[in-house]
Amino acid sequence: DKSLVWFRRDLRINDHAALYYALKQSRAVYCAFIFDTDILDPLLKDGVQRDRRVEFIHESVAELDAALRATGGGLIVRHAAAPEEIPALAKELGVTAVFAATDYEPQAIERDTAVAASLKQHGAVLLTCKDQVIFEKDEVLTQTGRPFSVFTPYKNAWMARLAAADGDFFLKPYPVDAYLSGLAPPPANVRHALPALAQMGFEKSNLQELRMPTGMSGAQQLLDDFIDRIGQYGSARDYPAIKGPSYLSVHLRFGTVSIRTLARTALQAMHAGPGAGGAGAAVWLSELTWRDFYFMILHHHPRVAQRAFKPEYDAIRWEQGEQAQEDFAAWCEGRTGYPLVDAAMLQINQSGYMHNRLRMVVASFLTKDLGIDWRWGERYFAQHLNDFDLSANNGGWQWAASSGCDAQPYFRIFNPVTQSERFDADGKFIRRYLPQLDKLPARRVHAPWTATPAELQTAGLKLGTDYPYPIVDHAQARQRTLERYAVVKKAE
Ligand code: FAD
């Protein structure tokens, strides 16, 4: 009759599956969030004291607590190892059920299995429900009942499932509002205060300087802003210098907005017709479907977290040794000599965000121009992306490395200069992050080494000093990559 909702990556109060089920089934519902030392301590051990995500969560948790208090509840916040703390808290509160949203990442599954086992010893249960995705696990399958491995037919089946008679069910918001009187405030004798960042060993990052909106209110602000330009999404999304995408990924990561709300928004715009922005909305919905797709792939093929989706790609021999280490450092620090690649890496380093087009460009550059194992890049993104999600990140990297399901064919190798000319024609994005190239004419800014001495002089640029020469020749790298990937061709 009393239960606990364990908030994890669903930091909101509205349209919340676990909260809804708990409120519907229990007389009194407590709410908790654990700053999990199993996740945070390794960061501190690596010397990371400023992590935008930790601060984003901290701010979002504060807003969630305030929202719960305003409706008669409140959040119990702890800084501890979740697998022990949740069962201990359940015992302290005398609850028999803990509700949480299903998590699909291998480590989270392990954690939840441990929590469930431990709760069981005290006669309590862990009840998980779908919340992060529209369709999970086996909900969208091929006609022969197998999981999809190609995106377009998956998307068609995904759309068809929504259009079916019971389709509305999957998009319907969980009407939490109607049951909020069941929320119980933290009992006075139960420790619940939100610890300060410093108490947990962290410092403020540059989140405020970036003016990155956090919490449910932040998600709403970004969504309102995006709805006005959703119609242009299809044509604007590929150009990093313009405000094309929604910037909602970090909010989807931490659940400050519900995926159902976003999918409904897209569908409404689509139904308004192509002229009213429906065409852009359809492209955006398709991106949200990619998100479901990669969650589904990770569920059916958890091995992709370590290995290639297509096993024959594990035979590829990546560059190793000192040169590879040096090249990797140059890539990480944005000094490859390819301006679009470098500007993109400065974007992630300074803000924790990287435009989707640029994620593809830098991932291709690392794997196919530098011949470095995609897992190195995947790990770097995991450390730096605010929106890091194992499923989408792994999917994106394996797409670029050609080892993934429905990936880019291995012989398709992005030319970093051509990509730059196409998607940042005036070099506006490049100049934002690399001011030393600001005065170069547009036709040179994509490849400064092609500038004449006179052009360099006019631009006040000394190559090799102000900006590096390219660390690799693209044409030669391309050749080496085709040879490297020959093992795959043989296997095919
Ligand atoms: P929008 O263009 O507004 O898209 C809306 C939402 O759709 C995104 O927030 C995201 O949830 C989803 N989405 C869009 N594109 C994709 C995609 N290709 N795959 C899966 N979901 C998608 N996305 C992450 O959320 N986390 C990651 O760790 C991540 N790593 C990536 C790594 C690589 C190498 C690549 C190529 C892509 C990666 N993506 C990742 C996908 C995509 O780049 C980001 O989702 C997007 O740039 C986020 O910005 P946005 O919210 O403004 O996107």
Task: Write up what this structure looks like.
This protein is α/β, with parallel strands linked by helices. It has three domains: 2-131, 3-Layer(aba) Sandwich (Rossmann fold); 133-173 and 216-300, Serine Threonine Protein Phosphatase 5, Tetratricopeptide repeat, CATH 1.25.40; 311-491, DNA Cyclobutane Dipyrimidine Photolyase, subunit A, domain 3, CATH 1.10.579.10. The chain is 49% helix and 6% strand. It contains 22 helices and five strands. It has helices at 17-25, 37-45, 52-70, 82-93, 106-121, 151-163, 215-227, 233-236, 249-254, 259-271, 278-300, 321-333, 339-351, 356-369, 374-384, 390-400, 416-423, 428-433, 442-445, 453-459, 474-484, 486-491, and strands at 2-7, 28-36, 75-80, 97-101, 125-129. A five-stranded parallel sheet has the order 3-2-1-4-5, with helices on both faces. Strand 4, helix 5 and strand 5 form a beta-alpha-beta unit. Helix 4 packs parallel to helix 5, helix 11 (278-300) packs across helix 16 (390-400) and helix 15 (374-384) runs antiparallel to helix 16 (390-400). The protein is globular and about 75 Å long. Bound molecules: flavin-adenine dinucleotide.
Number of helices: 22
Poorly predicted parts: none
CATH fold call of the largest domain: DNA Cyclobutane Dipyrimidine Photolyase, subunit A, domain 3
Overall number of domains: 3
Distance between the termini: 58 Å
Could you spell the SSE succession in H and E letters? EHEHHEHEHEHHHHHHHHHHHHHHHHH
Radius of gyration, taken over Cα atoms and rounded to an integer in Å: 24 Å
Largest sheet: 5 strands, parallel
Shape: globular
User: Could you give the order of strands across the largest sheet?
Assistant: 3-2-1-4-5
